[in-house]
């Protein structure tokens, strides 16, 4: 349903975490830094259309992915270019890989880790189980995921290929999934120790890759997640994730889940009240804030909001920025966004650069 009100629709000053929101609209050519009242305090002019989202860096610059180069038919969230922009929108680093898609993250070393596709020929791809018969990609096989790490010179210093490490028999595709892609990675989150948490939407699976050994140190799958996004490891060691809730036998609704990594038990969750009031079948994200609140992006509705530990909504914003997206029409989607709490080093450096 099209929203009837835009901008900030709710703000409880006593409960909301002080800070700023960094966001953009899918397919837009701008990135915004927004205050809690909905005021745009800074805007970056992007040198192309944004595919997914942007991230603040330690120096106060932003990294953002842009849509550039040839696209692979039928595969979602392809980008192809990662740029670093200073507060004046000048390009200070520029890297292209037309196979890059969805997510990216800066490693502790300053290198950038990102997701990419590569084509596995049909004969070799027979190891992939499940999916719709005779639905391999027209390019002649199945596109699988690769993680790449590049340095500031643009040199690839590390690669991790799904096909070299994955237990295919354990994780078949859904019967309703086309075999043109396996397994639709949508998140790569680099930990402080350099290990990488990855989400695979098609498999309802999260894994932790050991950066030194290339082995999978931890994994968890649950079909009730319904195509999850934006998994992260918290300071307490737990995993938090946006469980979209698509393709379920029960009424579809989204959840935010905090999971104990060792026991794999849900220790905290947020759902809408009633449940159907919070649902984004695709995209979306979240982050835990300094005061314990959780910032949530209900991406398909352009809705950004903040909830307390008890699940009370204390801040809400509906994006007024619409763009034309092929197949889907004119939408105000927000693939992902981040709220940076006051006191955050990255935010402080940006504000200092802006003179705020």
How does this structure look, described?
The chain starts with 6 loop residues before the first strand and ends with a helix. Helices cover 4% and strands 43% of the residues. With 356 residues, it is mostly beta strands. It is globular and about 55 Å long. It has helices at 162-165, 345-354, and strands spanning 7-11, 19-23, 30-34, 40-45, 50-56, 62-67, 80-85, 91-96, 100-106, 112-121, 141-150, 156-161, 181-182, 185-190, 196-200, 205-209, 216-221, 229-233, 239-243, 255-259, 266-271, 285-288, 294-298, 303-307, 313-318, 323-325, 329-331, 338-341.
Topology (SSEs and partners):
Layout: E1 7-11, E2 19-23, E3 30-34, E4 40-45, E5 50-56, E6 62-67, E7 80-85, E8 91-96, E9 100-106, E10 112-121, E11 141-150, E12 156-161, H1 162-165, E13 181-182, E14 185-190, E15 196-200, E16 205-209, E17 216-221, E18 229-233, E19 239-243, E20 255-259, E21 266-271, E22 285-288, E23 294-298, E24 303-307, E25 313-318, E26 323-325, E27 329-331, E28 338-341, H2 345-354
Parallel strand pairs: 11-13
Antiparallel strand pairs: 1-25, 2-3, 2-28, 3-4, 5-6, 6-7, 7-8, 9-10, 10-11, 11-12, 14-15, 15-16, 16-17, 18-19, 19-20, 20-21, 22-23, 23-24, 24-25, 26-27
